[in-house]
Amino acid sequence: MPSRGEAVVQWDRPAWERGRVLAGLAVVTAGLLAFHRAVPNSVGHLGSLLEQFLPWLGLMVVVLFVLALLRRSAIALVTLLLPVAAWTYLCGGLLLPGAARGAHDLVVVQHNVSDENADPAGTARSLADAGPDLIALEEVLPAALPVYEKTLAPRYPHHAVRGTVGLWSKHPLTGSRTVDIKPREITDSWQRGLRAVARTPHGDIAVYVAHLPSVRFGASGLGSTWRDESAGKLGRVIAAESVKQVILMGDLNSTVDDRGLAPLTSRLNTAQRGFAFSFPASFPVARIDQVMARSATVTHIRTLPGTGSDHLPVAARIAPGQG
Fold it and tell me: What's the pTM?
């Protein structure tokens, strides 16, 4: 036995045996990233709920990495390569800088201006200052519409408005019409979709502006039935669109990873570069304001400075004739 005052040395387990719980959590995180489509939606739309915040699983990797270092766990550090690889595959490309703007690229701005926006004129000026070719707006109230029209008219002489959604353009617009995306259970007047053709120097582009129904988080999970139904209706309209090039802009109340938007993401390509978290404006955690395209490529997306809305505007660069 050691004498009084002599330290008792207790040999810890080897580094390859410590941190098995951390290693297990790393495997689970990797599984959620790589196989998020396998998470069922039958109960509380759990799969869609996970997919709303999929990029944030990267924070879990960081936490596990720190804990593995503190625990001096070799097995946990090695296992963390799995979620790192999965996250990089899913999200890593969005971190890369976008290519330089091409001579024929279009710039578009998408913004839910909020029906509580106290400064529509300032909002309109801020969006126009970004110099886009097209501006899509949602939650444009009838009382605020004349302000947006007057403020944007000098630089955007062409516009179309249906219900609470509108499109302003530097290029002539033709064939504007309402797009019916109203869920069956909504009986009130509800116009939140439009389509118009922009006559750009690089060809005609069918432009859609949409505001899908909101989702709700509750004890039963994610309430997204109306949004999913509306996305399905919009997807079928776009599938039947005769104009080859298509741009969709809107508050889709979902991220592009969410399977609820599959009727759209299966037909349109999404941004190759940029996260552009747009909601809520005070602390953005997800991009629910989207720009998608067909026979064109959304090369980059970014947020613009905040306005009087609870959403941040997003600006995207689009290369026509690609994709």
Answer: 0.90
